[in-house]
Amino acid sequence: MLIPATAILLLSQVGMSNGARLHQRRPNTVFILTDDQDLHMDSLAYMPYLQKHLADQGTTFARHYCTIALCCPSRVNLWTGRAAHNTNVTDVNPPYGGYPKFVSQGFNEAWLPLWLQEAGYNTYYTGKLFNAHTVSNYDSPFPSGFNGSDFLLDPFTYEYLNASFQRNQDAPVSHEGEYSTDVLARKAYGFLEDAIAAERPFFLTIAPIAPHSNVVFSEDWFGNNESVHNIKTTPPVPAKRHEHLFSDAVVPRTPNFNPDEPSGVSWISTLPKQNQTNVDVNDHFYRNRLRALQAVDEIIDGVVARLSDAQILEDTYIFYSSDNGYHIGQHRMQPGKECGFETDINIPLIVRGPGVAKGQVSHAVTSHTDLAPTFLTLAHGGLREDFDGSPIDIHGHSKDETRFADFYPRKEHVNVEYWGFALSEGEYDQRFFWNNTYKAMRLIGEDYNVYYSVWCSGEHQLYDLNTDPYELNNLYDATDHSAQFFFTNTAHLLTKQTTSSHQTGKSTSFHRLLSRLDALLLVLKSCQARSCTHPWETLHPSGDVQNLHDALDPYFDNFYEIEQEKVHFTKCEKGYIVESEGPQSAISFADVGARGGRLWSEFV
């Protein structure tokens, strides 16, 4: 069942700041989607046109997340509005991922461009779509849902000076020797001209590869043979006009950069400290990322100029984001992604457009799963019942209007998941790390800010980002679980031997906290539709628990600590295999009846 478009239109027109209302003409959208762009290494600060046209003229969403830190699964999540465990596209290549998996799962007949066309929009796309979308399978079948398309194709997608593009239903064309992002810019401007001339509302996606590393594949890579022998990664290649820039830039030396002590779990905890030569090479890698982004920044300026010349800039939303984040040196890791740290999952999202506040920063908790519902809402299309996300409140409706609470739920959570490998992309220590499979979540409230994960190896992570923003102190392993967790921004960990006389605010034992986090993760790891957007409702159908504080009531101790099964894996896999995923559903408090009312103190 769909939420009626008329209801979405009403929601989109009510509650804007200063009483502003959207134009009756449906707005256009331009979506610029970069590849592997970081939020935590200051790359946005090196993009002056982005700052001028988007950040200063729109709203930056500081707590926007991808739910899986890998290109193809993240993009399928984005374009379908469904979590990776519901798309079952969890890798970059078959059998667990890539364009062939997207097609086999039926999503070429059920994804955002088709829904936008049904809502009366013209749709255009140029750049990278999915991994394993190749010069051999581009027509098996053609991606559906576009009035105009010009896709980058593997195995040349990440070769900055050797790209192959495939337009509409034409054969692929090689652009050897041309700079990929500049070729992309020409194609984007062409589609923009087509869209403007058509005099219908339009949705245009521009998807450059920058600042992804330059990658050369062998054919074996696409045959489920992922190894260091069939992939060569090197730093991104900037355009000639930019290759001299930022000669003094280095990876920000945050506390988690190449720390003296190891951190994390599994393979991350075994990484050696990088020597100075290694650090210098990675700084060069970082500088080339910044340089490669300059051609993307120029696209922003070119798009804004053309929209302005056509007198439709004020009727057009511009979204800017990335498929996932990136790390270089944090936690001693070589360049790459695929992890659950903030560097990899907390990513850029900037929006400008009709009714969007200018120069503002939003701390609403949002994710890529919310983008398809958001785009459809702006297009006045009906929302799908199988969406695992909800529209992002880009206009600030929910600040004062409680009647929007269900449509724009004030979420505190993001589900995060990953299967299979992690890859080191720099010059040093190029290798695959397997069993990089985990379920995780971010939980953010007014006075708590935590990351919790369970790995297929049985290891756990718990970080309090209010006191440990760089995720160096894994409280799960380091803490006596009877110690106290404090809900204040200035709190610090107390053990049984320390006094709490100077502490203010709420506190709870780590044992009680972990039981709630694990139960919430149990819901999110296999959630569908409303259980993804309202997970506490699954655990407490009566509605009396809506956040972490509510759940920590001692009245629920038995329910969480005794009755609820714990998140675990039965086996490490390279993809989503349900039989190895451990428990698939949480019990609700209503199911345990009177048993749930007994306090934990009765059992100890």
TrEMBL record:
As recorded in UniProt, its EC number(s) are 3.1.6.1
Residues modified to 3-oxoalanine (Cys): C71
Q: Which Pfam families match?
A: Sulfatase
Record-level Gene Ontology MF annotations: arylsulfatase activity; glycosaminoglycan binding; N-acetylglucosamine-6-sulfatase activity
Write down the CDD domains for this protein, in alphabetical order.
Answer: G6S
A GO BP entry is: phenol-containing compound metabolic process
Post-translational modifications: The conversion to 3-oxoalanine (also known as C-formylglycine, FGly), of a serine or cysteine residue in prokaryotes and of a cysteine residue in eukaryotes, is critical for catalytic activity.
Which region is the signal sequence?
Answer: 1-19
Keyword vocabulary terms for this entry: Glycoprotein, Hydrolase, Signal
Q: Which Gene3D superfamilies match?
A: Alkaline Phosphatase, subunit A
Q: Which reaction does it catalyse?
A: an aryl sulfate + H2O = a phenol + sulfate + H(+)
Q: Which InterPro entries match?
A: Alkaline_phosphatase_core_sf, Arylsulfatase, Sulfatase_CS, Sulfatase_N
Please tell me whether the keyword Transcription is annotated for this protein: no
Where is the Sulfatase N-terminal domain positioned along the sequence? 27-379
- Decide whether keyword Glycoprotein is in the record: yes
What is stated as this protein's family in its record?
Belongs to the sulfatase family.
Protein name as annotated: Arylsulfatase
Q: Which organism is it from?
A: Endocarpon pusillum (strain Z07020 / HMAS-L-300199)
Q: What is the lineage of its organism?
A: Eukaryota, Fungi, Dikarya, Ascomycota, Pezizomycotina
